[in-house]
Amino acid sequence: MEKNLRKNLLVVLVIAMAIAGRFLLEFLFNQVWDFFDLTSATGIFVRSLFVVIFILIWFSITLRSENPHQKLPWLLILTFEPVLGITLFMTFGRNFRQSYRYRRRPLMKQGNYITREESPQTLRIPEGSTDPTYTQFFTAAHRMSHHQPFIDNTRIDILKNGEAFYPELIKSIDAAKDFILFEFFILRSDTTGRKIVESLIRKAQEGVEVKIIIDALGSARTSWRFIRKIKKSNIDLVINDKIYFPLFNTRINYRNHRKIVVIDGHTGFTGGMNIADEYDNTIENDYYFRDTQIKLEGAAVRSLTALFFKDYYYNTNRFIDETRYYPQTTVRSEGLAQIVQSGPDSKNALIRNLYLKMIMTAKHSVKIMTPYLAMDQETLTALKVAAQSGVRVEIIVPGIPDKYIVYKVTKAYITTLLSDDVHIYQYEKGFCHAKLLIIDDTVASVGSYNLDNRSAVIDFEITALMTGPAVSTLLADFEADKQESTAIDEKEWNESRSFFTKFLEGIMSIFTPII
Q1: Percent of the chain with pLDDT over 70
Q2: Looking at the domain that runs over 148-335, which CATH code has it been given?
Q3: What average pLDDT does this structure show over 376-389?
Q4: 148: closest CA among 167, 109, 187, 121?
Q5: For residues 222 and 93, which has the higher predicted lDDT (pLDDT)?
Q6: Which end of the chain has fewer CB within 10 Å, C or N?
């Protein structure tokens, strides 16, 4: 089970260093003052300089275009503890699009990296492909993320949990003949990680090109001996945004949470699962782990390829656009398939905005499974309005947490959603990590996108939008998951929690925009 130990320790380290820095600055200031017998004018100048820095940061936050509730946590921290607030803001609060590494990557902007797909101006979805109401979702996603919808030419299979995903992944890897693109937030050096990497190494030794991207923070617990083994095995390994020093470095905050596999340009995988033992229930773990991955075959795989090479370009400054990575592949299948990406490199929260469109357009039902409920105000309002409009909104959340603070925030949102007739279920069989949205039992989204502010505007994310037979499988899985969940009764929920618990959850929810 991923405890995010290294990530939590890094955050604690930043806070501890900031607090220690506060006392150290005060101590050094007093020592220098006494030793050099400085005049009061010098002291006023030094303190005034700090005040100027504080004011500049305060105004930079205030003048941001984002909503007030996203600014409030930073302003509160700055007010109550300026040194800690400045340190945290310079580390976690700065805009990614103002960073040097983003500004020197022009192909990341406005979908410029996409060269093998039709533009929003030229593509037309034929009438009868799906209900015009739902066609809007794919058109909006195309205009926002620039990845086109593919019609009746991509097969999608639903893989429930690691025990279904990993054997299928290894089978596809073993069948590779030309290239393998492999990208995950977490690659663990455990039984599962070693088994899959051995397959990748074997294919690399056979002459298949293998490129791997893993996130530096997500894979922080991975053995360096394991990493060195990969690097020595004729595999092109890229570690996304290495962290050399945690203070005043935005790399610690903006992480690549995507999961992408491409085999020879015709087969792909994406979803919520990483490469680690806890996702596979055939391996003994603390509790049952529920997740969803999808396998794509056909034309839509080229979008996964383009997105992988975007992330590769971001980390290496090398843009790969060779024709051989985009073979013409078509698998006859009913329905639409579309890859949608989002991240801090975009001005708008692309997947979040697509979700708002889908929820507000729903006619009958909204079904969601998510490991976290730490939403922004826009998503919360959309769910409430949908429920108040007579749409049945059902959300499955974990009954067992993996992150204590975020789980407290989840409970705070459960309280407010229950008051607006949203149906909440706690998954009792184990921990549910799947990221799933189904609208009117017709259109579904499966990917890495959590229902929290971090996925909305901070992390790099991916989801697959679809209609057709795969949605029926997702619906059946959702209903089965409901049977293994407990519906939360609003009255019992409110009566079972103490005043202190409710107070703590309320305090935690204030900081949702920066958690």
Answers
A1: 83
A2: 3.30.870.10
A3: 93
A4: 121
A5: 222
A6: N
Domain boundaries defined on the chain: 5-93, 148-335, 350-514
Better-scored residue on pLDDT, 192 or 21: 192
70 residue type, one letter: Q
Strand spans (E) along 119-208: 150-151, 154-160, 179-184
d(CA 267, CA 304): 10
Contact 249, 17 (CB under 8 A): no
pLDDT score at 230: 96
- What is the pairing mode between strands 292-298 and 150-151? unpaired
How many whole angstroms separate alpha carbon 49 and alpha carbon 395?
50
Distance CA 186, CA 172 (A): 20
For the CA atoms of the chain, what is the radius of gyration?
Answer: 24
Contacts from 315-324 at CB under 8 Å and sequence distance 24+? 315/213, 315/238, 315/239, 315/240, 315/241, 316/238, 317/104, 317/105, 319/107, 319/113, 321/115, 324/178, 324/179, 324/265
Q: Distance (Å, rounded) from C-alpha 432 to C-alpha 427?
A: 7
Domains 148-335 and 350-514 in one fold: yes
Residues taking part in catalysis: 257, 259, 264, 433, 435, 440
Longest dimension (CA), the chain: 84
CB 469 within 8 A of CB 334: yes
What's the pLDDT tens digit per position in 353-369? 999 999 999 999 999 99
Tell me if 267 sits within 8 A of 296, measured CB to CB: yes
Please give the CATH topology (third level) of the domain spanning 350-514.
Answer: Endonuclease; Chain A (3.30.870)
Per-residue pLDDT at 3: 42
Predicted TM-score (pTM) of the model is: 0.86
Q: Point out which residues pair with 462 in neighbouring strands.
A: 341
Separation in Å, CA 292 to CA 109, 129, 149, 439, 459: 30, 26, 21, 17, 20
The 10s digit of each residue's pLDDT in 190-240 is: 999 999 999 999 999 999 999 999 999 999 889 999 999 999 999 999 999
Which DSSP letter does residue 272 get? Answer: S
